[in-house]
Write a structure and sequence with these properties.
Strand order of the largest sheet: 2-1-5-4-3
Oligomer: single chain
CATH class of the largest domain: Alpha Beta
Number of helices: 15
Number of strands: 17
CATH superfamily of the largest domain: PAS domain
Helix content: 40-55%
Largest sheet: 5 strands, antiparallel
Distance between the termini: 90 Å
Radius of gyration: 64 Å
């Protein structure tokens, strides 16, 4: 089976030439043969007419036949009777009988079938083909029969056929040569286009094809080069967009999963499996079989109507999974996309908000309950007892002060959160500020037989800050150290310099903080020992306010603690240039 276009073109070209040559040769040979036979027939008829016209009697016709036979030696002339027997022949009378169809037709004076082809022995005894013509004499009593050999005609035809065959062979050779040249002219650019298409399928779009002509093939080559150029540009854009999309998906903190119509995973990013605590998976069932109740088909039906969201609790976090379908350009359903978000912090904030509301309610309800109870007691008659009334009113006043302090702390936190607090930034001497605060709290420490040690540094440290806010933070930490340390405890305060910060450390030998509570002490209303903190008048907001103030100043608070041994708070203030 010929698969090459070049060979197909050559074979078609050669077959076309062979067919044309054979048809042409056949027509030529047929025409020459017909003309030759017609010429012989005309000569035979002319000879008979010549003899017939000159005949006077039987002796004269014999003389004319002899003269004609002498003149045209390539012809044989006979005078036959109506039965086909030879009456006279220049070759001599023989017993040969010519009862052929043409002789019989002439004998009976029938106008048709006067010509015929017969095979007779020649002088050498070989059978030779003759062309014969018979016609009756004027008296209708005899038949003039003339034969002419067709051997020369056949030889001429054989020579002609040989020449035609040779011409066909030469034409085939020339056709093959020209066919290859012609096919090369056509197939060379096609071969180049095929090779370029193969290279394009492998991603090689750089080298254009040389344009070898200005015809349709050349235009095809130019268009192909233009298509390759546009394809390269398009692929470059697609590749850029694909790389951009892959980069975005790879570095997204949200997880992305894409499933086809049958639930097979066709695309994902690393964050998806990390958020779901899953290893590599290949189907929807592999991923969500134990996490969601809905199977893939049910979820597809739900997402046809609206986006579906589910919150999945895992061991140490919460994730929100959002499902949506995607369609092709014909609006046919192709599959589903899943976006996974870590909402652990959001859930924690919700819990903190709930806890905050509960804490505020609790903190307000306790003094309000006390105030209401004491007020009702006074209204029931206790007001008449001055000592009792005075004691009750003192409790009511204390609870009112506690509520006022709580509300003030809440308002201050709200202002800090909403950036409504105005800070008066100025350069302050941290050494002097710290010494003044320590002097004030030494009195409180002395009441509990506590010792407060402070070794003033040689260097003077100045920072840019709001002096009142910084004083509020330091007082809060030192106040807590005094409150939550036992009798005869030791509180040590130091001021030193770090790489980029000035550091105040306040260390006590109090109760300390349990490890499980250490990360939550800056949360609002969070207390390590709730009963003791409330009894000491704390609102649970002091450390939260201190942290907000430190962060506003570009600093931070760190705490180290051993439960039962004490705590150490460190305040970091940025150095001034």
């Amino acid at each position: 089976m010929i698969k090459s276009l070049k060979w197909r073109l050559v074979m078609m070209y050669v077959l076309l030439v062979i067919i044309i040559m054979i048809v042409s040769g056949t027509l030529i040979v047929t025409m020459l043969n017909n003309n030759a036979y017609k010429k012989i027939d005309d000569e035979l008829k002319a000879a008979v007419q010549y003899i017939k016209e000159l005949q006077v009697n039987e002796e004269n016709i014999k003389s004319y036949i002899s003269d004609y036979a002498e003149l045209f030696k390539d012809k044989r002339v006979y005078l036959l009777n109506t039965r086909g027997n030879i009456i006279y022949s220049p070759l001599g009378v023989s017993d040969e009988v010519f009862n052929t169809s043409s002789v019989m037709a002439a004998a009976y004076d029938e106008p048709t079938k006067r010509f015929e082809t017969v095979r007779l022995p020649n002088i050498n005894g070989h059978l030779v083909e003759y062309r014969g013509y018979a016609e009756p004499t004027f008296q209708k009593d005899a038949v003039i029969y003339v034969l002419a050999s067709t051997e020369q005609l056949k030889n001429n035809m054989m020579d002609t056929v040989a020449i035609i065959i040779l011409a066909i062979l030469l034409a085939i050779v020339c056709t093959i040569v020209l066919g290859f040249a012609f096919s090369n002219f056509l197939t060379k650019p096609i071969t180049a286009l095929t090779k370029k298409a193969r290279d394009m399928s492998r991603g090689h779009l750089e080298d254009p094809i040389e344009v070898l002509s200005n015809d349709e093939i050349g235009q095809l080559t130019e268009n192909f080069n233009m298509m390759a150029k546009e394809l390269k540009s398009t692929l470059s854009e697609i590749s850029g967009e694909k790389n951009k999309l892959e980069t975005v998906l790879t570095h997204m903190t949200d997880g992305i999963l894409a499933f086809d119509f049958n639930g097979q995973l066709i695309h994902n990013n690393p964050a998806a499996f990390e958020l779901l605590n899953k290893e590599k998976a290949y189907t929807y069932n592999d991923i969500f079989n134990t996490l969601l109740e809905s199977n893939y088909k049910e979820l597809l039906e739900l997402t046809k109507r609206d986006i579906v969201q589910r919150i999945i609790p895992l061991r140490d976090k919460y994730v929100n999974v959002c499902f949506a379908i995607y369609l092709n350009k014909n609006k046919n359903l192709m599959g589903m996309i899943c976006v996974i978000q870590d909402i652990t912090e959001h859930k924690k904030l919700e819990e903190m908000q709930k806890e905050f509301v509960a804490n505020v309610s609790h903190e307000l309800r306790t003094p309000l309950t006390t105030i209401k109870s004491y007020a009702e007691t006074l209204l029931d008659g206790a007001v008449e007892d001055k000592d009792t009334a005075k004691a009750f009113l003192q409790v009511i006043n204390n609870e009112g002060d506690r509520m006022t302090a709580l509300v003030q702390d809440l308002l201050e936190l709200s202002k800090l959160d909403n950036k409504q607090t105005k800070f008066k930034m100025q350069e302050i001497n941290l050494n002097c500020l710290l010494e003044d605060i320590i002097e004030k709290y030494k009195i409180h420490a002395a009441k509990k037989n506590q010792s407060m040690n402070y070794q003033a540094p040689v260097a003077v440290y100045k920072i840019s800050a709001d002096v009142n806010r910084v004083e509020q933070v330091i007082k809060n930490i030192i106040s807590n150290a005094v409150k939550y340390s036992n009798e005869k405890a030791m509180i040590e305060v130091n001021l030193n310099e770090g790489h980029s910060h000035v550091i105040i450390s306040i260390k006590d030998t109090g109760m300390g903080i349990p490890p499980e509570d250490l990360s939550r002490i800056f949360e609002r209303f969070y207390r390590v020992d709730k009963a003791r903190s409330r009894a000491m008048g704390g609102t649970g907001l002091g450390l939260a306010i201190a942290q907000e103030i430190m962060e506003y100043h570009g600093g931070k608070i760190e705490v180290e603690s051993q439960f039962g041994e004490g705590s150490c708070f460190k305040l970091y203030f940025p150095k001034t240039n």
